[in-house]
């Protein structure tokens, strides 16, 4: 696996524009090669800015939005209409705007009996829908170094043999979530970390340091097979 690349942009707006442009390029290149790209989306505030920017630039991209499959690195286990749902936010910001038709996420808390059922259904969906690898997996990072809903020193870090697992005690609200496991997060050609702000600078430095544990900084455990890019603004890069 190649070493992580770091790309620093002035501020959150320039960062979102750069990521959105790169994502549109990757999707249209993939379609030009005859593929239906599998793209991993993330929750979080910088992701929302990226999604809105993709929607703004979409018309000139030539992308066929019916021929892209969207997945989520994690999803909040709340009712379907809850504004905290990652898929709801992504639909408002991008997916419904461009008419995406193949969108997959973990079922909501009013769609299945319990968290475990949501996790096992999403695991089955990911297994059957992602034929090979995610072409691009976008991820945020928490101030504690969490990625998706894999938090430091949490038992979910050790879950293997399934694509997705439930987390019922997330330190970041809401408490119940379904997250892809490390195995699945690492089945991506390209992993892009989207990071903005001073509050993440320490976590970014820990994630990119020569040494450090995955238990302590879970973002250290995710790498793309072909590339890992840290898209940062100046503040997020300030401890590098
Ligand atoms: C979630 C996200 C989570 C997020 C990071 C960064 O569902 O909460 O998947 O992993 O990406 O916490 O979030 P911000 O970009 O909002 O800081």
From TrEMBL:
It comes from the Bacteria. Keywords: Hydrolase. Residues 12-230 form the Glucosamine/galactosamine-6-phosphate isomerase domain. InterPro entries: 6-phosphogluconolactonase_DevB (IPR005900), 6PGL (IPR039104), Glc/Gal-6P_isomerase (IPR006148), NagB/RpiA_transferase-like (IPR037171). Pathway: Carbohydrate degradation; pentose phosphate pathway; D-ribulose 5-phosphate from D-glucose 6-phosphate (oxidative stage): step 2/3. Gene3D superfamilies: 3.40.50.1360. PANTHER family: 6-PHOSPHOGLUCONOLACTONASE. This is 6-phosphogluconolactonase. It comes from Nocardioides faecalis.
């Amino acid at each position: 696996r190649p070493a992580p690349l770091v790309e620093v942009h002035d501020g959150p707006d320039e960062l979102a524009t750069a990521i959105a442009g790169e994502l549109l390029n990757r999707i249209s290149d993939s379609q030009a090669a005859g593929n239906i790209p599998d793209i991993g989306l993330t929750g979080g505030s910088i992701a929302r800015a990226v999604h809105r920017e993709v929607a703004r630039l979409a018309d000139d991209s030539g992308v066929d939005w019916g021929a892209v499959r969207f997945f989520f690195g994690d999803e909040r286990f709340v009712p379907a209409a809850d504004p905290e749902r990652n898929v709801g936010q992504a639909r408002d910001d991008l997916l419904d705007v461009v008419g995406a038709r193949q969108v997959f996420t973990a079922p909501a808390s009013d769609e299945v009996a319990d968290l475990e059922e949501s996790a096992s259904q999403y695991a089955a969906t990911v297994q059957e829908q992602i034929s090979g690898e995610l072409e691009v997996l976008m991820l945020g990072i928490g101030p504690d170094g969490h990625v998706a809903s894999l938090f430091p020193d949490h038992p979910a870090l050790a879950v293997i043999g399934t694509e997705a697992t439930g987390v019922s005690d997330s330190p970041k609200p809401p408490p119940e979530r379904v997250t892809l496991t490390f195995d699945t997060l690492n089945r991506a050609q390209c992993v892009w970390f989207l990071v903005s702000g001073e509050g993440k600078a320490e976590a970014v430095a820990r994630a990119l340091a020569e040494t450090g544990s995955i238990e302590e900084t879970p973002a250290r455990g995710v790498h793309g097979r072909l590339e890992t890019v840290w898209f940062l603004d100046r503040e997020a890069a300030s401890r590098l």
